[in-house]
Structure formats: C-alpha cells, structure tokens
C-alpha cells in the first residue's frame, strides 16, 4: 500500500514515516523543510516541495498515485499564529485546499488529517468530546478547523473519500529507539523547553500564567507520546479500510498534567534543578484541555503503549541529550 505523507520530515510526520516503513508500507514524503529535516526521513523518498505549489504537488501525487494521504504539514505555534494570522491561514488552510483539490482530481480514496485540540478553544467541560462546541480562540485553531470543514464538505459533496480527522492533544516524547525525535531551535512546547533549560541551552524556563482556575494556577494539558499518536493513524486507517465510517477522533490519554507538575517530572528525570520564572498568560492559551478518548478506543484497535508521563519525558530527554 502506498502512503503519501505531507510534513513527513517534521517531528510527528517523521515518526509516522518510520512506523509506516517498519510496517512495510511504500512511503513518499512531501515537505518544504521549513521545520523538517532531510535526515529524519528514514524510509521511502522525499520530495522537497510546498503545498502552495499546486503544480508540483499534483505532479508528485500523480507520479506516486497513493492509496492514502496522511496530512501533517502545518505551522503549529499558537503564539506565532496570533502575531501572524495571515501566514497561518495561507499555509495551513490554503495548503490543505490545494491538497484536497489534487486528491479529488486524481481520485484518491483515503485521507487522514492531522488536526488539533485547539479547535475546542476554551472547553465548556472537561474532558472534551468530539461533538463538543468548536470555537477556537487563536488563528492556529481556526486554520485547522477550516481544514476539517473543507474535508467534511468534500465528502458531503458526493466525492467518495473516506477520512479520519485526528484532533491531537499535546504531543511529546521521542522514538524509543533513539533514531529520531523533536528538533527545534526555538521550541514553544513545554516539555522540550524544560529539557533545554535542564541542558543549559536556555537560561531558565518561563511559566506563562499562574492565575488559571486550576489546582496550582498553571494550565493543564493532556500529553500523548508521539509513537502512540502515529500508531493511532494506522489504527484509524485500518478501521476505515474495514468499512468504518469517516469520523473525527480525539487522540489523547484522557488525563491532564499542570505546567508545574510537568516541571517536577522533568527535574526528576533529568536530575537538574533548573531555574523557573513566572510570567503572564500567553494570548490564545486555554486554561485546561483534556481528551475524552473513548471514541477511538471503542471504534478502533488503538491501545496506548507509552501512557506514562515519565516515559514521555525520559524518551524526549534521551533524544535531547544526543543533540
């Protein structure tokens, strides 16, 4: 089976490519390398290209003719999206429209979309279910929600595509074999920033907001190991190919950790008591996001393997020490 992976040189996409390659899939990665790295693509071939370059995108798809498209390519910083909203709508939404246009033209039948819990905005209840209101509070979340809508509407128009939309919660960790992991010169994700503080690559870890309505005043998130996340993609693909209906799935563990709890775990795993400073909330950050993951657990064969915050941090730390 042939799988076309957009953003396959990036953090999550490269782990997906590795898993697909190990399972015997024929893989082609399409990535503009704005955040990805050639050396992270461990299987198949890499075409360096942008989703906004429609001619190259269509030609690449036509030459490869995949059975499945897995779409990871996107800009993902909430903070940056607030400052540069047009960039996010153009890159994430317009890029996805180009991809869907080519998919329809070539008659490709399966599509798995990388989405985000940011589409929920400030959740009215926790944990959040897939059918709960989607009212993003930042341009990143809106750009991904528009992508979801375009895919749903393509199916509703009569084009016989089968899709799964996976709403990720906070992805962290690294390949347990140590072959790939997260690489970022200016990371925004909490665990990676904490690890860089432990390494001394940044002088301290800044905690954004201590006045949230949570148990310790810091924001709470549901963290999922990257290898469980990419396995979920294979499990929903299997579900679709066995006759399952197109659907939206939360992908998380169903439990949350506050920023200060994560800081404590990182200090324990690394053995480094790095400095922590406290600042104001970042614009666009909700106080709490935890997944109700019952749908993916009930409908597919997905069974988390790395559901432990210490395992998540440990694999990320082992990778980070190699950098």
From TrEMBL:
Give the metabolic or biological pathway: Carbohydrate metabolism; galactose metabolism
Alphabetized, the UniProt keywords read: Carbohydrate metabolism, Isomerase, NAD
Q: Where is the NAD-dependent epimerase/dehydratase domain?
A: 3-252
Q: Which SUPFAM superfamilies match?
A: NAD(P)-binding Rossmann-fold domains (SSF51735)
GO molecular-function annotation terms?
Answer: UDP-glucose 4-epimerase activity
**Catalytic activity annotated for this protein?**
UDP-alpha-D-glucose = UDP-alpha-D-galactose
Q: What is its EC number?
A: 5.1.3.2
**Family annotation (Pfam families):** Epimerase (PF01370)
The record describes its quaternary structure and partners as:
Homodimer.
State the family it belongs to: Belongs to the NAD(P)-dependent epimerase/dehydratase family.
Name assigned to this protein: UDP-glucose 4-epimerase
Name its species: Thermocrinis minervae
